[in-house]
User: What shape does this take?
Amino acid sequence: MDFFVSLVIAGACVGSVYALVAVGLNMTFWTTKTLNFGQGAVMMLSAMSTALLVQYGLSDVVSIVFGLLLVALTGVLVERIAIRPALKTAGSMGWVIATLGFGIVIQGVTARYFGSQAVAFPEVLFQVQDVVTIWGQSISLQYLAVLCISLVLIIVLECLTRFTVLGTAIQACAQDMELAVVQGLPVNLIISGSFVLSSLLAGVAGILVAQISGTVDPAFGFELVMFGFVAAVLGGMGNSGGALLGGIILGITSKLVGGYISTAAEHGIAFGLLILMLAIRPQGFFGRAEVNKA
Amino acid sequence: MKKNKFNHQLSIIMASLLLSGLSVQVQAQDTIKLGMTTALTGPFNEFGEGNRRGVVLAIEMFNKNGGVNGKKVELAEALDDQLVPDRAVQNMRRILDNKDIVAIIAPAGSGPSLATMDMLEADGRPVCNPLAQSPQVTLKNGEGKPPRANIISMAITNKSEATAMGQALGAKYKNVGILHESTAYGVTGSEMTKAAMLAKNPGVKVEVESYNQRSQDMASQVARMQRAGVEAVLVIGLGADFAVIRKNMSRLNVKADLYGSTGAVTPPYIEGAGNLALGTRTMSPTAFGLRPLKPAAQTFVDQYRAAHGTDRWYGPDEANPQLTLGTIVAQAYDCTRILLESMKAAGSTQPAAVIAAMNKLTDFKGVTNDSISFTPDNHDAFSAKDLSLFEMSKGKDGKLFLLPVKE
Assistant: This one.
């Protein structure tokens, strides 16, 4: 029983971070129907800058805030440099390569100036030894903190999009961009904002994962984006609740497969689930099937 | 008149160029040139840059003492492969195309080393392997067969480390977990250690798990070890991954004793795991753990500290260099010393003469091994008897360092 619970908790924790990444991908999907595949580098940037600033003597909080401001700026740049020009050509998929390339450039610049070595990440959320006992089961407070922060952020974001003017504006853009322009909505600003929000979520995800792994290096984050993408597809592209469910199902399934079947299959199962979902229900758990109006 | 003046100037320029070319050529013949490709940058540069420093320090020492056979020594090519086999092959091709290079230091890892060994063997120039642990670096055709004629190794081979570690674990525990990275280094090390453990204690239960390099969470692997009830966990991999595993063990409250391979207990592990590294055990060369150090080791340590201070490789304690200074930097230093001493003994840089001298090397006082001998049948400096168990301990200043285990 302990073994099962350990795997489920670890899986839910890691899965909640996948969900955070998935929600970040959804944000840009709503406004521009694009995904930022350079999101992994954004995660790395926030975690790496936080770790380096703490090493230089800044407090944890100031370092995290700086890291998040940096990735917010990166979000604006990604949209301006990699997305907006690519979308000028109707039907262009140039944004896929452009966002990937942007991520690789960030990685390269980081490696050039800060080295490719793993940097120790400070323990900003409890100590690794801190545990709480619930129903006789020791649970790491770091795992719980990561899970709680991810859940709270996703819920706040969902409330933001459902119950605020900003959220309504984002939904308007998502449903009909041209009509949103006609209605006088600042569409470009909303699109930029969605990239900033998406990058901020990726930045938080990066810091949370770095807390679990304990180190961060320039190659950090690439794998997480893949899992975040799988979580988004499982839940239904563009649906926050679906992303949360998809992420947690993915995290728990991976850990259970790793624990009970083989650790070698732990990562492979994610893509197995993706293929299965695309074959059985392409729109995901909560997505709505696309209808082509002739 | 103008034409004559132009011709005169042209002839002066041509003569100057010719002379400068000759002088370059004379200079080229007046130095003994070495070449290396290694991980100077990239995620594993603690190995490659450490190796380069060792080579440079040895060259400086020889040059300070008059060079080799009356000639100065220079590191003519130090190329960066980032531990990527393809890049190492390209770099090695460039090094081998330079016929002025008379000896070569092998790359800093099994992947790039194995990718370049056949071309090095075919070329025939003397080569020393400072770090790659795969036995195939020297023993192409397996144990008991003659080694590659021109390649010697200062590395702690998988075989010697696995034998020493397997014997230590088999003697102490009944249930051991091996967690290894899914590379040739990890897989071979795991198989050899398991075999050595079972040879020592046929009743020992061994649980084996693998992981991919740079995984960010290894809860499944650690939970499986916990469920198997292992008393000790041996991690065969690299430092940053070892730190992730150590943190996972702490989070899942796994209390098993922790052991790491020589590649795992490195600065990235200590930096990543912090105080959790306390109590971690590893096999390391006995000679470099002795205090006071033997003369050859002390000379190297003094030379390193004078050149680089107490840096990442040396460690924070001036009086007590960390063991990885030996296993990473000093092994390349000893490699260079052996190649150059063999040239001195041969009185030549001709490959056949240098290799013959290397094969006669007896009781050479190295930094990490106090008695190195090579024969035509043995090109490996280390065996299990040259290694001892060390444990991560805390000094009065709170810094972590490895101390010999007295059991």
Observations:
- The first strand of chain B starts at residue 31 and ends at 38.
- Residues 160-261 of chain B form a domain with the Rossmann fold fold (CATH 3.40.50.2300).
- Chain B has a mean pLDDT of 90.
- The radius of gyration of chain B is 23 Å.
